[in-house]
């Protein structure tokens, strides 16, 4: 639609919009994906919202009868209203959106910068900055109030000693912070690990862990990878003094989107940086490790 037939940045001194239910499913779409404001927020990409997916339509039909489908549509579309109400009810848990190209790029953790109006607060406390062009801001939310999620960018540097073979391992990470901890978050990299490369991904947390102090990284899938070990060891027999091939994990760098704090974590066991299937390694803040070694 043209700007005269819809909401646009010219309609007020400052215009912000929250886009939910913009993706057409089963011929239904109520919201619009087109930017129409100075700041356009796209929670969870602007499509279906947590707790409102069409896989819940059957439970909604059981609960609401023939209007169950309408309740499913309503859940996602009205989430924008509930997000705004949440910004009034929970001023201490303000939701932050980050400027990004699209949700796929955001999920890779590449868009957590706030300089130059690259981020803003969703809801009543939005920062009213007029910009020449609309800013598309993305964020994750929870399924229910309070909706706030804490966004972390993780960068892990791997050296794959199985070269030229690409491997696609699954990892879990456990985080310990000054205010709490979280166990066994499943991490699957978008692309396989090859050569000597840094991989970036987004970790959304529902609870505030405070300042991160320790990271536990585990390589899952023991049974699957035992066959690979046997194959590799058959091709390359290991001598007594040799080390078997593994993934060398040099550093883990973390950036907290909400606080913009940057942290670097180093392996607690500096004598061997290799990670093997079924094994876990502990990483602590590098500055703390240096102090401990003095």
From TrEMBL:
Please list the residue ranges annotated as the PLAT domain: 150-285
Q: Which Pfam families match?
A: Lipase (PF00151), PLAT (PF01477)
Top-level class of the enzyme under EC nomenclature: hydrolase
Q: What is its EC number?
A: 3.1.1.3
Catalytic activity field? a triacylglycerol + H2O = a diacylglycerol + a fatty acid + H(+)
Read off the PROSITE patterns from this record: PLAT (PS50095)
Query: Does the keyword Cell membrane feature in the UniProt annotation?
Result: no
Q: Which Gene3D superfamilies match?
A: alpha/beta hydrolase, PLAT/LH2 domain
Which keywords accompany this UniProt record?
Glycoprotein, Heparin-binding, Hydrolase, Lipid degradation, Lipid metabolism, Secreted, Signal
> Which GO annotations describe the biological process of this protein?
cholesterol homeostasis; cholesterol metabolic process; cholesterol transport; fatty acid biosynthetic process; high-density lipoprotein particle remodeling; low-density lipoprotein particle remodeling; triglyceride catabolic process; triglyceride homeostasis
Q: Does the keyword Disulfide bond apply?
A: no
GO annotation, cellular component aspect: extracellular space
* Compartments (UniProt record): Secreted
Q: Which SMART domains match?
A: LH2 (SM00308)
Which one of the record's GO molecular function terms can you name? Answer: heparin binding
Chief localisation class: secreted
Stated family: Belongs to the AB hydrolase superfamily. Lipase family.
| Family annotation (PANTHER family) | HEPATIC TRIACYLGLYCEROL LIPASE (PTHR11610:SF2), LIPASE (PTHR11610)
Name this protein carries in UniProt: triacylglycerol lipase
Q: Encoded by which gene?
A: LIPC
